[in-house]
Amino acid sequence: MTQRHPPGAVAAQQLGLPHRVIRHGAVRSLAEAAVARSVEPTDVVKTMVVRRGNDDHVFVLVPGDRVISWPKLRALLGVNRLSMPQAEEALQVTGYPRGTITPFGAKNALPVIADERLAGRAITLGAGLNNTALAVDADQALTALDAHIADVTDPEPPPTVPEPPTPST
Fold this sequence. Notes:
This protein is α/β, with parallel strands linked by helices and 169 residues long. It has five helices and nine strands; from the N terminus they run αβαβββααβββαββ. A hairpin with a 5-residue loop joins strand 6 and strand 7 (132-137).
């Protein structure tokens, strides 16, 4: 059985972007994705779809160990409100289901905003298929995507640990 060539890789190739396809088993966390891709967690890039308004979306590329800073992103885009679309809307806008989303070969060519921490790195990001990633040079990829590079993230907050139960007296 032959494996389908990921649509993100096809699009990257059409842009003349050097890339490597990484196929791996299912992952349930950033740490697992980093191990499966043989990279550091910061180099597992999350491609987020953000809604600015009706039929107005952008891609935001976020290092794996960081989260979108909504105040920074709103200021950059000059808007008071942003939101994350539901999975079905993200699929409709990009052509990709969550977990596979990539700006390469998306159904709609959306503006791309990339966190400045990606510059100068080798990164991996979705390829348009489950359990598949593209490995690319971030600078080359951001140039190919005509990305706007800015400080739009904050560190991932540490996980909250529930308080242990208080013994009854």
